[in-house]
């Protein structure tokens, strides 16, 4: 390694594994976050490729004229964001793409396993707010058996409870293995290669991965505080999509919940569109029982065109892997028939557990308390951020969409303080210019991160301070 001074700034030439000089980086700010920010920029730009060996802590500290502890803190921050990894005596390396079993945008959402003081990146519920499974498990049959492989896929008791709580009169309801399974199976029946599908932007990244796999084109529509915008949907429908995919409550990542008036307006837009009857609306109500917003569906006005999905992961536990699918009999029966040639049905033991949780008074009280807690946490952190000059919109559910000056800078800054949030880029269906604008939820040229507010149990002011600082900070030195 050799050091060079240019215009008062220190330049460090990094020689890696005996190869020729591969990077010359300007470190205008030699704090831990400044060093981490410059290295992050080089990694993201591809100048430091996956697998590249980084200089040792002492080597870089010597070149920059800082203490080894300063560089060590920068390396730790980069490791927490998943950009680099330590291989013991071999040194630190730019982390290669991992988790190849995940689809591309899901991989972008996945947080590294490196421990942090507070992980606000995962979008999962607070495990302490989930209802206890012990009592329900004790009431399940000791034997896993079923009378017939061709029996009804939904146990009668659960079917009745679901029908009584459904937001509109669905012709039939079945259960599958989670909301994403439901969305995937519905898209398989509706979408063909080359078709267009209207999606929210920002929206849930795995939806975009599914459309990529099907060879479909995502048509992004902006969301505001009441959900997908009618004008945006009207424009998107002129491109003659076969489906509209939306989240009526606690939209991920923004936390927006649709009002009854907005749902009716969207239904009116669809009804007035060319080839209106050919469009299938797929609704992902993933946070229904912990949402403080009222139950709403476009199925109230378009019963023959809406497939409504209700997941119980956020309210009762992600590992239950159960979601209900309700809608037109012809379409839902096709989904069920295709599923019978694969997994067949969702475990009736799991269905029995869910039925118990949906009817037991103690479990119902636990879910109601979780809903209250999430509302309180959203309001407390949202108020604290707005008081610190961060224009976040009110949100429902467990997530919040926070504008930042620089996405990557915010991630590195928070990692340096022992916190992690999710990068906003995977949630965008297209470039920012195509996403539209809506009350700070998506804006041309804007950058965002998703914050899982639902796990912020206390220390709201400390968390808000860290988030606000990261939101308003850009690392110097060209990053």
Q: What does this 3D model show about the protein?
A:
- The chain has 479 residues and is α/β, with parallel strands linked by helices.
- The protein folds into three domains: 93 residues, Arc Repressor Mutant, subunit A; 134 residues, Aspartate Aminotransferase, domain 1; 230 residues, Aspartate Aminotransferase, domain 2, CATH 3.40.640.10.
- The protein is 38% helix and 18% strand.
- Strands 7-14-13-12-11-8-9-10 form an eight-stranded mixed beta sheet, with helices on both faces. A four-stranded mixed beta sheet has the order 6-16-17-15, with helices on one face.
- A hairpin with a 5-residue loop joins strand 4 and strand 5.
- Helix 15 crosses helix 17.
- The longest helix is centred in the last third of the chain and has 27 residues.
- The protein is globular and about 70 Å long.
- It starts with a strand and ends in an 8-residue tail after the last helix.
Instruction: Find the structural class using helix and strand composition.
Output: alpha/beta
Largest sheet, if any?
Answer: 8 strands, mixed
CATH topology of the largest domain: Aspartate Aminotransferase, domain 2
Give the CA-CA distance, first to last residue: 22 Å
Based on the structure, what is the oligomeric state of the protein chains?
single chain
Strand order of the largest sheet: 7-14-13-12-11-8-9-10
Please compute the radius of gyration using only Cα atoms. 24 Å
Mean pLDDT: 86
Strand residue percentage: 15-25%
Helix % is 25-40%
Briefly, what CATH class of the largest domain?
Alpha Beta
Helices, by number, come to 17
Unreliable sequence segments: 1-23, 431-445
CATH architecture assignment of the largest domain:
3-Layer(aba) Sandwich
| Shape field | globular
Number of strands: 17
Task: Name the CATH superfamily assignment of the largest domain.
Answer: Type I PLP-dependent aspartate aminotransferase-like (Major domain)
How many discrete structural domains?
Answer: 3
